[in-house]
Amino acid sequence: MPRPRLLAPSRILRSTPRQIGGGRSREALVRRARESIEKGSKSFAMASRLFDRHTREKAWLLYAWCRRCDDIADGQDHGGELKLDEADAKDRIEAIRVLTRRALDGQPTAELAFDALGQVAMEAGLTQDMTDDVIEGFALDAAGWRPRSELDMMRYCYHVAGAVGVMMAQVMGVPADDQDTLDRACDLGLAFQLNNIARDVWEDDAAGRCYLPMEWLVEADIPPGQHMKPQYRGKLVELVARMVGMAEQHEAAARLGAARLGFRQRWAILSAANIYGAIGREVRARGAAAWDHRVHISKTAKLRHVARAFREALRKPPEPEQMPRWTRGEILVAVRMAGPVAPIPMTPLPDDF
């Protein structure tokens, strides 16, 4: 019987060649990434301008990927109104995973933000474990997950911001084996996200989400899903003040790590810390009126925070009064325990004879 003919001769079949950045020029990736950060986050855009050019461009490339993943997961365009569709939520997360892995493998993705990730990953030594940790935060949201305990909340904060802080530290040149500085970078991300949760309690509730630990709500005698009701506003203010206090501890710890960076990097990081810290402190200061209007920091106030960061970058940071309760190591244990069981290695046993 004659052998069936292949659709194409095997000698002309070729695997797709590796093309870092999806075959796009670095200049084009940087230009579009800059447009993304200027549209999506004026605070980060302002702070990033303080970096040296090469660090600034890598930060933009990383931001573009984070922003695009967030938009795909939530059906948004650079933030704005959530357009959640639970029917295809898992498909959207799987698409993020596939495109991310292709980018890290040096394959074109037809998505500029993912091609940008491939470029910055090659330049800064970012790994799939790092991106998987970030994507898991989007997967938790897609599954309608809510934190039961304080540790659960911190695990979520790690996925969506602490892990990004670690990646950002490597973008700035922190060695992968400098674990203490990476811990401090994680602290900054955790501080950012805790402040974000405090600010966005009303918006999250409107979207059917809640990132306040259930145990906190039980302790405050607030029924599940009722924390935005007027009769519980006083207790909610206390819980959010507790959260902002945690953010301040992580922020103070992060300043220790910032002191090990070059001056321009230190200035940029302290500027971002000041701006995001101001958000949480403003939420706390407004008390029961914190969610009547969304807290934002004016451009003039941001410039003041940048100027203050310049002075802070010139001197040694003060020692924190108290280090944060949750460390990166403890959170990572919870992250790995919550993840899938690692496959059993199938390597043969050594021959004793």
Automatic annotation (TrEMBL):
<dbReference type="InterPro" id="IPR008949">
    <property type="entry name" value="Isoprenoid_synthase_dom_sf"/>
</dbReference>
<keyword id="KW-0808">Transferase</keyword>
<dbReference type="InterPro" id="IPR002060">
    <property type="entry name" value="Squ/phyt_synthse"/>
</dbReference>
<dbReference type="GO" id="GO:0051996">
    <property type="term" value="F:squalene synthase [NAD(P)H] activity"/>
</dbReference>
<dbReference type="Pfam" id="PF00494">
    <property type="entry name" value="SQS_PSY"/>
</dbReference>
<dbReference type="InterPro" id="IPR033904">
    <property type="entry name" value="Trans_IPPS_HH"/>
</dbReference>
<protein>
    <submittedName>
        <fullName>All-trans-phytoene synthase/15-cis-phytoene synthase</fullName>
        <ecNumber>2.5.1.32</ecNumber>
    </submittedName>
</protein>
<dbReference type="InterPro" id="IPR044843">
    <property type="entry name" value="Trans_IPPS_bact-type"/>
</dbReference>
<dbReference type="InterPro" id="IPR019845">
    <property type="entry name" value="Squalene/phytoene_synthase_CS"/>
</dbReference>
<dbReference type="GO" id="GO:0004311">
    <property type="term" value="F:geranylgeranyl diphosphate synthase activity"/>
</dbReference>
<dbReference type="GO" id="GO:0016117">
    <property type="term" value="P:carotenoid biosynthetic process"/>
</dbReference>
